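name: query_chain
kind: protein
chains: 1
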Amino acid sequence: MATVATLSPMGKIVSTLLQKEEEFSGIAKDNPGMKVLEKEFGVALSPGGWSPEKLSLLSSYLELLPPHFYRPSAAGKICTFNLSFDSACCFVYNQYEIVPIDIDVLNSDDPRRGFIHVNHELVHRITPGYLDSTQDRIWDHEVLNILGTTSLRTVNLRLDKQINDVRENRKTPFWEHSKNYSLDEYFVDRLYYSLTPRPSYINDAENLEWIAVMGELYPRGRGFFVPQYSRFFDRKVANSLYEFTKSQMYHNREYTKYPIS
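structure:
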C-alpha cells in the first residue's frame, strides 16, 4: 500500500486545484455571483466556499485597492483567490497567481480584519521577486536604504526591548475584534510581526513581510502611518517609508481615512 504523505497548507491548495482542473478555468460555471466578480475585476476564484457574503466582502475590498493589485500581471498571470482553512503564502500555479484567503477571516462580523488580510496578501503578490524569483527584489534594497541598514535583523535587535515592553503591557489580545482594538497596540503587533526573523527557504523573508505590513497599514492614511512609525524611527524615515509605499505600491493613490468602517 502506498504511503499517503501529509500535505503542507500550500500542498493542500495545489492538490485541490489539480483535482478540480476542469472547474478551475477562471470562470466559475455554477455560481453566478462568482462569474460577476471575476468578470468585473479580472480575477479568478477557486471552486468552493464562496457564499454571497464572502463574494460581497471581497468585491468591496477590491474596489478600495488600486487595480494593479489584482488585475492580470504583465506576464498575463491571473490573480486567483483561494479560500482555505490554512494560512499559506501566495504562489504561482500554471497561469494563475494564487492568493490564499483564510475562510474564517472573510467574515462580515469584522470586515476590517478581512480587508487587512486581503490587502496584505495582495501586496505580497505585487512585490518584485516574491512570486518570480528571477526578478530583482528592488523594494528590499530601497526599504533597507531608507532605514539606513543592510539587514532588518539589525533593526530587530535595536528595537526588540522597546517593542516587547509595549507588547507586555497591552490591554487587548492580538487580533481581538478590530472595532475594539487599540490602534497603537495593533501597530506594535504588526511591527513585531514584520521584524521577526524567519527560518525560510526565501532569503531574508522578513524583508517581504516588512513590505507587506507597510502596504497593509498604508490605507489608514498619512496621519496614522507617519506618527506610528515615528514612535520607533526618525520622522524623516517614517515620511520616506510613507512616500515609498505611496509611489511604489499604491501608484500615488492616497486615503484620507480608513476605507472600512
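note: The chain has two domains: 11-126, 138-249.
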